[in-house]
Write a structure and sequence with these properties.
Layout: E1 7-12, H1 17-29, E2 33-39, E3 59-63, H2 69-79, E4 83-86, H3 93-98, H4 100-124, E5 129-135, H5 159-178, E6 182-187, E7 189-191, H6 200-209, E8 214-217, E9 223-228, H7 229-242, E10 248-251, E11 256-258, H8 259-273, E12 285-288, H9 303-309, H10 317-330, H11 332-338, H12 342-351
Parallel strand pairs: 1-2, 1-4, 2-3, 4-5, 5-6, 6-10, 7-9, 8-12
Antiparallel strand pairs: 9-11
The protein binds nicotinamide-adenine-dinucleotide and thymidine-5'-diphosphate.
Length: about 350
Amino acid sequence: MGQQTPNKILITGGAGFIGSHVVRRFVKSHKQHHVYNLDALTYAGNLENLRDIEDSANYTFIKGNIVDETFINKLFLDYKFDGVIHLAAESHVDRSISDPSSFVRTNVLGTVNLLNASLKLAKGNPDFKFYHISTDEVYGALGETGFFLETTPYNPNSPYSASKASSDHFVRAYGETYGLPFIISNCSNNYGPHQFPEKLIPLFINNIIHNKALPVYGDGNYTRDWLYVIDHARAIDLVYHKGKMGETYNIGGFNEWKNIDLVQLLCRLMDEKLDRPRGTSEKLITFVKDRPGHDLRYAIDAGKIHKEQGWEPTVTFEEGLGKTIDWYLGNQEWLENVTSGDYREYYKKQYQQ
Ligand code: NAD
Ligand code: TYD
């Protein structure tokens, strides 16, 4: 029996936080696939995140920018991918407030470049699929009650969520207009190892390690639903292989926390892990000016993916947060490396420290 040709999957943004967990999962669990990781290695992308799998026979890294249309068209013609899992994006809300244009370039134009190149491959390959990874932030803000469903109308409030909503719309429009086979999933806030320390949890872990202020926006009474990144990667694997074309899946942790409660829990766990007297880290909490357009609450109803695909989160928040803290404490060199360069300048501007 002859060897089967491997299924060629392009994963964009695979050197970033979620992308690196998705790449690792596909490389390790799906030897029948060859994974091509396309990443521009912006401040958020780091090949350190993939050291353990970089020599695998079914893995190739390609450095490149999805905004470069000529490069993308040639790449798709050269490699003839069988599918795309698209995660590359500018992903931080605060950055989108200070520089919205870069979010339009990568998240909107970059996605459209990938869609155009995908159309050409889809014409000659009936099994081709484009899987777009998106966020629950496209739905806007909830009040104290209710959940986002797949049918909830889009109502993005930040430049980040507006750019992601726009890219979601383009993906759907390419499906309707040109018949591109696609799937979209919209997930809640992820946390776990390898997350760049500008998002709430890793930023605060890093600041506690260095005895720096913990800037809680407004009164801290904002709610997010948190999902351990490995559970998200497992959901992406399931949706890529078993999801129905043209469908959207909401993915969430059934795990809502008000920011201030989460920060207090984090402070308590950090005191224990660092063997500091209880209350030490909490003293670092500093209430600062609110984020403009700050969404009050996000909460996902992940009933559809549960019912259709049998997916549910497996890692409890206490367990996931413990593992996350252990990872950052054990990888302080990684933290040092990623927080050199433009990061310090950015935070000086952000918090006038
Ligand atoms: P991240 O910022 O950690 O990583 C983004 C990656 O994309 C980086 O490796 C970066 O180098 C790469 N990239 C950026 N611009 C690029 C470009 N122009 N060309 C090629 N590569 C480029 O992001 P993340 O948190 O891992 O998020 C990944 C995806 O998941 C994003 O699409 C994001 O919108 C979505 N998402 C994130 C969350 C979350 O909580 N982090 C939740 C739901 C959905
Ligand atoms: P973040 O991790 O930036 O994710 P998102 O804005 O995409 O939900 O922020 C999570 C929550 O924490 C959000 O309500 C904003 C708040 N936050 C702070 O209070 N202080 C901070 O320094 C950061 C980065 C976020």
